[in-house]
Amino acid sequence: MFSATHSVLVIFLILGGTNGDSVNQTEGPVTVSEGALMTLNCTYQATYTTSYPFWYVQHLNKAPQLLLKGLTADKKVEHEGFQATLVKRDNSFHLQKRAVQASDSAVYYCALSDTVMEGCRGS
Fold first, then answer.
1. 70-79, pLDDT tens digit by residue?
2. The CATH number of the domain where 33 resides is what?
3. Which end of the chain is more exposed for a tag (fewer CB within 10 A), N or C?
4. Which residue intervals define the domain Ig-like in the entry (predicted)?
5. Number of separate domains in the chain
6. Which has the closest alpha carbon to 9: 98, 109, 100?
7. DSSP code of 3?
């Protein structure tokens, strides 16, 4: 078991879009104390109004997995303690977790899609 002062390393990357779309998110390694609030910023520019932001998580030696999708403006979506709210007027979809754990150490990707994938988390 880790003490409350144990640090959690979280790594972020920037992903660019296609067709004139772009995504900007928190860059580089970020260290967060276990039990603290984590916020990852994600803003985007989209060519189409039907574009939707997604958050993916990739744990060490694992494939990326869908964490959250933003399909409805001003509606908070949640999964496994993570939450995000799609704010269309700001083109933002910031990811938060209130009390991070060592097991949350991973690479987090904010991505943009102009197609809605079936079976995704959030709405």
1. 998 889 999 9
2. 2.60.40.10
3. N
4. 21-123
5. 1
6. 100
7. -
CA torsion 37-58-11-86 (nearest 10°) is -50
16 lies in a domain? no
Which structure tokens are listed for 71?
């399909």
4: left (phi over 0), alpha (psi -120 to 50) or beta: alpha
Contact 69, 54 (CB under 8 A): yes
Q: Would residue 78 count as lying in a domain?
A: yes
For 28-54, how does the pLDDT look when each residue is reduced to its tens digit (9 = 90+)? 777 888 999 999 999 998 877 778 899
Beta partners for 92?
43, 87
Is 56 contained in some domain?
yes
Sorted by sequence, the CB contacts under 8 Å of residue 1 that are 6+ apart come out as none
Reported in sequence order, the residue ranges of the chain that DSSP labels E, i.e. its strands, are: 7-12, 22-25, 28-33, 38-40, 42-45, 52-58, 65-69, 76-79, 82-87, 92-97, 107-113
Q: 8 Cβ partners below 8 Å, 6+ apart?
A: 31, 32, 33, 34, 38, 100, 101, 102, 104, 105
Residue 74: HSE in the Cβ half-sphere, 13 Å Cα cutoff: 1
